Automatic annotation (TrEMBL):
Originating species: Spiribacter pallidus
Protein name per the record: FAD-binding oxidoreductase
Family that this chain belongs to: Belongs to the FAD-binding oxidoreductase/transferase type 4 family.
Domain FAD-binding PCMH-type: 36-218
Keyword Nucleus among UniProt keywords: no
Keyword tags: FAD, Flavoprotein
Length: 473
């Protein structure tokens, strides 16, 4: 990279769009898990129109500068962070933050990429509609980042991932052209569905600058319950029964092992053991409806009775429901206090989850005796965080040095059961080697072909997802 190239790039932008002071750049260089952040970049740029994004990308493309798109920087795989010795700029979408339109009759809205997820939810609520993507980082993450990672969260069971919620996208391509793909159509079979290429591509194929999104009827009532169970198989059977009995109104079905629950209880004084006796597993379920006259709580109650579930509670009011959710949402922070942990984010067909947990647990313990398995997550989506907390006697660094071999053990079990080694958080810098190792060779070749076709100069987020060039060089 030459100073001239950077100077040329910066000339394409106004002063407010450019950050080069080291202290001002620092927050953009950090990364959630502290594994990949801190590497310097030539500049952080913050354009506020798609045209300015396009001018910047064109300049970088011409000068051989890598462009790393960044949304709310809440990603968990280092996708928005620079790599060591990379000649790059960070392109923050934070100033592209307008809701362009909301159409209640169309059940759709158009948001620019830098809109925070909570702002999109609020814009929908203002017209009595629901934008259902929801999870703990919603106040910080941005809709562009959500699409780029095909984010999931707590309502996938009912409404799907970010991909399922997207009608169209506006994208700046690697050569600076803008694709105006902001359709609001539910049906369009007029050719390839190109938007799906950019969703989940983690900024490696194009920069999403806006999206048209699906809205749904606002929710009028919820019923939330927590159930204690002795096996994952029982949890899966109960999930099916509740889904049927609720009239397919289940929007969340979260599984928690006793260990993560105990971490949450120890960490947060406001967390309360939800049931009188401890259980090996807990299921947190929520049903929701846009209708007011459906007795959702009664339906859950009947299904619990029919399934002869011994120990459960249905929240009688919103604070009790919030207390159940607090247990679930406290787990990631609480786990940190117990010592270093190696994170996994796998999916398997729902019916295989019990076998996965059993086999992966045995394989991990054989490879690293004393590892504390901390399994929790979205059972209703077949996706759990099969996290590994270090053995009590071991040291954080010693355990973290085993990240690659212990995650490989877990990934192998997931893939063996027809699952995925990256169900929710994506690839970023964390898993390109696993993409190489575990993807079907034909699929891998197609992914590379697409990257080469859309970004032959490797300008956009190089080295992430499916590296075009040999990273060992
Ligand atoms: C507390 C917490 C809870 C979380 N829970 C969940 C969860 O339940 N489900 C879930 O799916 N994820 C979860 N995540 C992960 C994270 O929030 C998501 O991956 C989120 O979608 C990232 O959005 P972001 O705006 O922060 O993107 P960033 O972190 O800034 O970027 C993520 C990736 O997308 C690329 N990117 C960002 N914006 C654009 C754009 N406009 N165009 C092209 N590429 C872009 C970046 O280059 C990077 O590769 C959680 C994270 C935290 C910290």
């Amino acid at each position: 990279m030459t100073n001239t190239a950077v100077t040329q790039l910066l000339k394409t932008l106004d002063a407010e769009s450019v950050v080069t002071d080291a202290r001002a750049m620092a927050p953009y260089l950090t990364e959630q898990r502290g594994r990949f952040g801190g590497h310097p970049v030539a500049a952080v740029i913050r354009p506020d129109t798609p045209e300015a994004v396009a001018r910047a990308v064109t300049a970088c493309h011409g000068a051989g500068l890598a462009v790393i798109p960044q949304g709310g920087n809440t990603g968990l795989c280092g996708g928005a962070a620079a790599r060591p010795d990379e000649q790059a700029i960070i392109l923050s979408l934070e100033r592209l933050d307008r809701i362009r339109s909301v159409d209640a009759e169309d059940f759709s809205l158009v948001a620019e990429a830098g809109c925070r997820l909570s702002a999109v939810q609020a814009a929908a609520a203002a017209v009595d509609r629901l934008f259902p993507l929801s999870y703990a980082a919603e106040a910080d993450c941005q809709i562009g980042g959500n699409l780029a990672t095909n984010a999931g969260g707590m309502n996938v069971l009912r409404y799907g991932n970010a991909r399922d919620l997207t009608l169209g996208v506006e994208v700046v391509l690697a050569d600076g052209r803008i694709w105006h793909g902001l359709k609001r159509l539910r049906k369009d079979n007029s050719g390839f569905d190109l938007k799906d290429l950019f969703i989940g591509a983690e900024g490696s194929l194009g920069i999403i600058t806006a999206a048209s999104l699906k809205l749904f009827p606002a929710i009028r009532q919820r019923a939330t319950a927590i159930v204690g169970l002795d096996s994952v198989e029982r949890a899966i059977a109960l999930f099916s029964q509740l889904r049927q009995a609720s009239g397919d109104a289940l929007s969340s079905c979260e599984l928690m092992g006793r260990r993560p629950l105990e971490y949450a209880l120890a960490h947060d004084a406001h967390c309360v053991d939800p049931l009188p006796a401890p259980h090996a597993w807990y299921l947190l379920v929520e049903a929701s409806s846009s209708a007011e006259d459906v007795d959702l709580a009664g339906r859950l109650e009947q299904a619990m009775a029919a399934a002869a579930v011994g120990d459960y509670r249905i929240a009688g009011d919103a604070p009790t429901a919030a207390a159940f959710w607090r247990l679930r949402n406290t787990i990631p922070a609480a786990q940190k206090v117990a010592g270093a942990s190696i994170k996994n984010d796998i999916s398997v067909p729902i019916s295989g989850m019990g076998e996965f947990i059993q086999r992966a647990g045995e394989a991990v313990i054989a490879a690293c005796p004393g590892t504390r398995i901390c399994a929790f997550g979205h059972l209703g989506d077949g996706n759990i965080h099969f996290n590994l907390t270090r053995p009590e006697a071991s040291d954080d660094d010693e355990f973290l040095a085993r990240w690659a071999d212990l995650t490989a053990v877990v990934h192998d079990e997931a893939v063996r059961l027809g699952g995925s080694f990256a169900a929710e958080h994506g690839i970023g810098q964390l898993k390109p080697a696993e993409v190489q190792r575990l993807k079907d060779p034909v699929e891998l070749a197609l992914m590379r072909n697409l990257k080469a076709a859309l970004d032959p100069a490797d300008t956009l987020n190089p080295g992430k997802v499916v590296p075009l060039r040999d990273q060992s060089a």
